[in-house]
Each structure stands twice: as structure tokens, then as C-alpha cells.
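Researcher: Here's a chain I'd like modeled. Treat it as a single chain, no partners, no ligands.
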Amino acid sequence: MGRLLNFGSISIFNMFALSEASQYMAAGVVPQALENTWQFFIDGGVFMGLIVACSMVGLAAIVYKVITLPKASILPDRLSGEVERIGEDPSEQVMTQLENEFLEGESALARLCAVATKNTGRPQAEIQDAVQASAREEIVKMHVGMSVLDVVITVAPLLGLLGTASGLVVIFGNTEDLVSGMNNTKIGSGIARALGTTIAGLVVAVPAVVAHSYFSRKIEKMAARLEVLLGIVISACQVRAGESAAAPLTQLSQLPQ
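Model: Modeled as a single isolated chain. C-alpha cells:
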């Protein structure tokens, strides 16, 4: 029993010792890491500040696209299913039930379907022109913010290269140290600091490229889905007016942005 008590007391003592040691290590390591990070950004100079600004702009654009480009605001699943059922049963009763929901315009699909139903009875070409004009506006809304990501993708690496080039000019501007071989260590550390802006520019650009690719693909898929559903609605409007089914729409993904 005494051995167990001794072992327990030793274990508790070791736990306290380890916790105190970890606290001391954290107290020394964390401030040092923060200091090194801060020094990394300070060494970059003005160009590092511009890269940081680009990163903030890019992050804001990504957050904006995440908020404004959910599927529910473009192609709600329930409304998409109801529009698909119109193709199977384009009766007056079914169309009338959906018209009120179309007029509420809570999603891009609802707004475009409302344009088609409002033009029921007009020639097929006029209905398609009206829908395509409204679709062009919706596609432009879906692309809002993408140009900002394009700018960040292009500018951030260029700022990094510019910062590196300017830093190297300053480092190698003193030819006396290069010829005499003095301060080689200082020159090497200066080159490393100058290359920091290139690293920072690439770190900002890579996530922006990934986000841009993701959002572009998402918009393309939703535009293709809108094209199919609007074709169903236009055909139903033509049948409702006693005319033949409508011809296919121009691909929405190919409309001017």
C-alpha cells in the first residue's frame, strides 16, 4: 500500500513538473515565434504590406462568394423538382400553382421562370429573348467578385517578385562588400529576407487560384442546370398557349458575363 502511495505521489509530482515546464516553454517559444513572424513581415517592406492587403481583399472576395453563391439562392432543390414535374404534366392547374412562387422571386430560377410565364402567349422567339436577357443579368450577378480574385491571382505574385527584386538591388548595391568578401553572412541573410516577399505572394495567390476554380466550376454547373429547367418552363408555356414546344435556349454558360 505504501508503495502505491509513493508511486501516486511521484506521478502527481511529475505531472505538475511537466505542466510547469510546458508553461515555461510556451512562454518562451510563442513570443519568439510571434516576434519572428512580425520580423518576417517587417523585412518585406512596403511590398509585403501590399501583399497583405491583397490577401485581405482575396479573403473578403472568397467570403462574399460563399455567402452569395449558395445553391438555395440559385437553384432550390424543391423548386427544381417542381419545374421538372411541369415537363411531365404541363397542365393549367400545375402552372397556376407555381406562378405565385415564381413571382415571389426568392431565387434566380424563380425569377427567370417568372419572366417566361409573364410572356406566355407571345411568339417563341420573344419569350426566349426575354428569358435570355434576364438570364444574362443573373449570370453577371453570379460572377460578381470573381474579377477581384482574378486581380489577386495576378497581382500578388508580381508584388512578391517586385519586392524580391528591389531587395536584391539594395543588397548588391554595395559592391565593396562583394569584392572584399566581407559581411557574406549579412548578405546571405539579406537575400533570404528579400525572397520572403516572393513566398508571401505565392502563399496569397495559391488559395485564390483554388477558390476561383471552385467558384467558376460551380457557376458553370448551375448555369447548365438553369438552361435545362428554363427549357422545360418555356416548352410548358408554349403548350399552355396551344403552340409547339420551344426550341432549345442558348447555353447560359456561354452568355456574356
